[in-house]
Design a protein that fits this description.
It contains 2 helices and no strands. With 63 residues, it is mainly α. The protein has a domain of 29 residues. The protein starts with 6 loop residues before the first helix and ends in a 12-residue tail after the last helix. The model has no long low-confidence stretch (mean pLDDT 81).
């Protein structure tokens, strides 16, 4: 389910995060979210590649 957030929704989320976490914690929180998303993407990419039979090398030998 995609989130259809416009600029007002993004600004509202940023304001809520600023009020909840404070300005000193936001850079640390952003780095943590970014690294988590990066790991998630690489994990799903590896999973998709391992399920794709075309991506795996053929082990048959030609004679």
């Amino acid at each position: 389910m995609p989130l259809n957030l416009g600029w007002t929704g993004i600004l509202l989320l940023a304001l809520i995060a600023l009020l909840f976490f404070g300005p000193s914690k936001l850079p640390q929180l952003g780095r943590a979210v970014g690294s988590t998303l990066r790991e998630f993407r690489s994990g799903t990419k590896e999973l998709i590649q391992s399920d794709d039979p075309a991506a795996q090398p053929k082990s048959e030998s030609r004679e």
